[in-house]
Amino acid sequence: MAQLTDDCFAFGGKLTQVDEALDQLKGTLKPSAKTEQVPLAGALNRILAENIISRKNVPADNNSAVDGFSIYYDDIQSGSETKLPITGRAIAGVPLGRLQNRGEAVQILTGALMPDGPDGKRPDTVVMIEDCLVDGEVVFLPEGIYRGANCRLLGEDIQCGETILRTGCRLRPQEIGLAASIGCDHLQVMVPLKVAVFSTGNEVLNPGDSLFEGAIYDSNRYTLMQLLKSVGCEVVDLGILEDNPKIIADALLSATIKYDLILTSGGVSTGEEDHVRKVVENEGSLLFWRLAIKPGRPVALGQISDTVFIGLPGNPVAAMVTFLQIARPIILKLSGANDTVPKLFSVQSDFSYKKKLHRREYVRVQIKKNGNGKLIAKKYKREGAGILSSMVFADGFVELSEDIVNVEKGDFVNYLPFSELGL
Ligand code: AMP
Ligand code: MG
Is residue 339 part of a domain? Predict the structure, then answer.
């Protein structure tokens, strides 16, 4: 029976659920084995290709966390202040140079080594300068100090023999700093995937060109190239392909020689001019192509020779959503990166919404505070898969899982911030 509808998702064919599709792929995707050494300063956002085991304790010895006086806790009087002679000075990089005995206070600056003491004992406590009263050569220490105060202990950050970073981790500023703290100056990292990007469509033109009637500017290639860079890929722009099976086949086949992955947008639906999917089917193998995801749905994943092919839908928001939900985890896996599952946060919906069972939907939202200071998700005024301005408006998505059919204003929903997706 003919179906008259404005819902392009209303069709009878079998849809593949997002998790089902990703599970199918898990076993089949082999991470690239190519690695290279980079200097620490150039390692930001790279994927580590080795476990880093520390051969040092950090700190290498006990040292002071503040400016103050190094003392033996057992010299503290209980019930009154304690008076001790100031007998020396230790600064960062210039230790006391002799043993500190019981009954002495040694002036110590932040980062200076705690002096050693006789008979295997050593001062164990630092009293902050702000808490002390200095009178010439003596210092008065207040009551209420605890044993070990303001003293950083040998190995309290990193123990010798500890694995501090593991293969597959993305190197953020803090990982790079940690590697530096044990003296690493180079790291073995994964070689980035080389990715070729095409757009398809007779109506699609480069920004800067003059538009003919019915033509549009290519936004997808620009978004997708930046998304690829955000996951650490080396990106090559291969322009726009006409809706012509021969041209598409030639371009895809020559790209397979040079690139690890080909990413296209458009031309993967079932329309007469949607040739990309057929070319991949003819030249290689195709894994799946109709996903129960909105915006999104037609996604083609395949392989031609050793090159992975991902064909995303043409509509700009659908291209972004399917990149983030499907292409991104695939690319991270192929890049040798650890599986990082983006975290969802519970917020209150400021809108009501109806959706289809068995389909996952991504609603573009901005996060605001309501009158009670609680976080609420506000939906963009328009929903279409071509409304790219909604992605600029949004801070992230409300992810409505397959089992949900209805959301009421005030319901708690799962919020996925763009920052969880590296945007
Ligand atoms: P398709 O999947 O090729 O049928 O395209 C679906 C819709 O997305 C059509 O309206 C196209 O004009 C549009 N579209 C396709 N490619 C792009 C692109 N690179 N940039 C912006 N819109 C596009
Ligand atoms: Mg098209």
Answer: no
